[in-house]
């Protein structure tokens, strides 16, 4: 591994109830620093049966824009970022969640009264997959 890179790998299967029937769910989070900085989220999972739903969620404070095989995010300072995913595995959707008064710290820190939830739904009947989701400045 290069000095400008960092990585963390975990088996998330133990974090789920037995009813999820996970054989394994390996998640690797990688960080590349520097001029072409990016965050890479790699998932490799295998289930013991065909699941009802497999989803990944990302919460963001700015409105995402669905594009072909990527989601664009423009930060409050105008920088443009992209979240890329494998469309042969994931299908994206976006919904809005209004923050409540009890979440005043989040409202103050993120300077917004709502969050956007990006949901990546695995294609129906998917029992195993290997995928990479990459977030980088465009």
Describe the structure.
There is one protein chain. With 138 residues, this protein is mainly beta. It has a single domain (5-137), classed as Distorted Sandwich (Beta-galactosidase, Chain A, domain 5). It contains 1 helix and 10 strands; from the N terminus they run ββββββββαββ. It has one helix spanning 104-110; strands at residues 5-11, 22-32, 38-47, 55-60, 65-67, 70-74, 80-84, 90-98, 114-122, 128-137. A 7-stranded antiparallel beta sheet has the order 1-2-3-10-7-6-5, with no helix packed on it. A 3-stranded antiparallel beta sheet has the order 4-9-8, with no helix packed on it. The protein is globular, with a radius of gyration of 17 Å.
CATH architecture: Distorted Sandwich
Helical coverage, percent range = under 10%
**Spatial order of strands in the largest sheet:** 1-2-3-10-7-6-5
| Structural class category | mainly beta
Number of separate helices:
1
Radius of gyration: 17 Å
Q: What is the CATH C-level name? A: Mainly Beta
| Count of extended strands | 10
**Principal-axes shape call:** globular
Determine the strand fraction and express it as a percent band: over 45%
Number of domains: 1
**N-to-C terminal Cα separation, in Å?**
24 Å
Mean pLDDT, all residues: 92
Remind me, CATH topology? Beta-galactosidase, Chain A, domain 5
Order of helices and strands: EEEEEEEEHEE
Low-pLDDT runs of 5+ residues are none
Main beta-sheet annotation: 7 strands, antiparallel
**Assembly state (oligomeric):** single chain
